[in-house]
Design brief:
heterodimer; A: three-stranded antiparallel beta sheet; 6 helices; B: alpha/beta; three-stranded mixed beta sheet; globular
Chain lengths: 235, 218
């Protein structure tokens, strides 16, 4: 079975439909599946529900889909650094299901692991708990959160082999791993595709079973939100 | 640069240094964005403290040199950082398993309001400002000790340590210690009231009382 496609557009062929739910990897602009997001934007698919920690910044990453109004609802933990996201939400143009970051990661992981719901202490006694079942275990309250089973996952990896085994790099792993497992089908973009046998089987972060379609997204011009440096001490 | 007017109370750096006194050798610690991040500059010498970044890293190193900046290596505030020989990387679900599972010893967070019952609000002002809770709700639910570092009063002068939070909560009955520019409040457990345990230089207990609406023990 050939998993490698020649472009993001081709890799998404037949997978997109209006009103669908998409799980996307990335934290801020780190490790975002930018080629696939561009192709989703170009397809014109709309009324999307997107589960992603953030929504990029104003005109980067998922921020592009907000600008074109293709998104009906975001399931996110953080909208800071994205004025258009905050504006659309405060104006009532965009539905946002604010989900604590760890709860979002676990909802994606659980959804992908066949677990429809789980109890967590996170959010007890806050707005997040409203409408949710509360259950006491060993004298402490927990709320029931639902797993997320997305129609499609889009993720960004560092290296893949031709069979779809994936390796991430440094903090660009973030939500890519749980998002990849949450989708009924996962499409991945990577910086390099290597022959089968080139990656250490003990060092695979995401086994090939999760990656159904793969594209080489390079070259990337990776963006930095806040560049912070230190000075070298004078010799 | 301290001027005469600034010698009273603690600066942002001094508040961070005060929070750093709560660190212990071997601690795994998560620092929030803003003043809490400055705690990293005040880790006592000879002490091993491992910093966790909730976007998937243990062992945060200092800011990188210009030629070592890596877009794939950032902290939870999206700032570029560096790694240490002891660093490790993991995904967001594993990261929050550490946090929620009670494996992190201490977190230092900013806040807009803290109530006398230990409730904390720091993620939205309805109708005005919304950033989202990020990982803060998970941190306050799962970390063993929660320290809040914040200005004692808002720019308007309104107290921030108050009887009941007016803003949507991040967590209920979770805060263990509050460090402001004027004073430190602590409680030994979540059933006890906060106690004023320390005053910043030049600050009197009476002044703290005047600028606080929360009930606390002196």
């Amino acid at each position: 079975m050939q998993k490698i496609y020649s472009s993001a557009e081709e890799a998404l062929q037949g997978l997109l439909f209006d009103g669908m739910t998409i799980a996307a990897g990335g934290f801020g602009l780190c490790g975002i599946p930018e080629r696939l997001i561009d192709a989703i934007q170009a397809s014109g698919v709309k009324d999307l529900t997107i589960a992603s920690n953030n929504a990029g910044i104003d005109n980067e990453g998922l921020g592009k889909l907000l600008r074109t109004r293709q998104v009906k609802k975001m399931i996110s933990s953080y909208v800071g650094e994205n004025k258009e996201f905050e504006r659309q939400f405060l104006a009532g143009e965009l539905e946002v299901e604010f989900t604590p970051q760890g709860t979002l990661a676990e909802r994606l992981r659980a959804g992908g692991a066949g677990i429809p719901g789980f109890y967590t202490k996170t959010g007890v006694g806050t707005q997040v708990a409203e409408g949710k079942e509360v259950k006491s275990f060993d004298g402490e309250d927990y709320i029931l959160e639902r797993g997320i089973r997305a129609d499609l996952s889009v993720v960004k990896g560092w290296k893949a082999d031709e069979s779809g085994n994936l390796v991430f790099r440094k903090t660009a792993r973030n939500f890519n791993q749980p998002a990849a497992t949450s989708g009924k089908i996962c499409v991945a973009e990577v910086e390099e595709i290597v022959p089968v046998g080139s990656l250490d089987p003990d060092g695979i972060h995401l086994p090939s079973i999760y990656v159904k379609r793969l594209i080489l997204g390079a070259p990337y011009d990776k963006k930095i939100e806040f560049k912070t440096v230190r000075q070298r001490e004078a010799a | 640069m301290a001027t005469a007017a600034e010698t009273k109370g603690w600066t942002r750096d001094q508040m961070a240094a005060r929070a750093a006194k709560e660190l212990r050798d071997g601690y795994y610690v998560n620092l929030g964005i803003g003043i809490p991040t400055l705690v990293a500059n005040n880790i006592p010498g000879g002490m091993t403290v491992t910093l966790q970044s909730e976007n998937g890293m243990l062992g945060i190193g200092p800011f990188p040199y210009e030629d070592q900046v890596d877009p794939d290596l950032i902290n939870a505030g999206k700032q570029t950082i560096s790694e240490l020989p002891s660093s490790s990387y993991f995904d967001s679900a594993a990261s929050f398993a550490m946090i929620r599972g009670g494996h992190i010893d201490l977190t230092v967070l900013g806040a807009m309001e803290v109530s006398e019952k230990g409730d904390i609000a720091n993620w939205m002002i309805p109708g005005k400002m919304i950033k989202g809770m990020g990982g803060a709700m998970d941190l306050v639910a799962g970390v063993k000790k929660i320290i809040v570092v914040m200005e004692h009063n808002a720019k308007s002068g309104d107290p921030k340590f108050i009887p009941e939070c007016t803003l949507p909560l991040t967590g209920k009955n979770v805060v263990d210690m509050i460090i402001t520019d004027l004073a430190v409040f602590h409680r030994p457990d979540h059933d006890s009231p906060f106690k004023l345990i320390e005053l910043a230089p030049g600050v009197t207990a009476e002044e703290v009382r005047e600028k606080t609406t929360a009930n606390y023990v002196e």
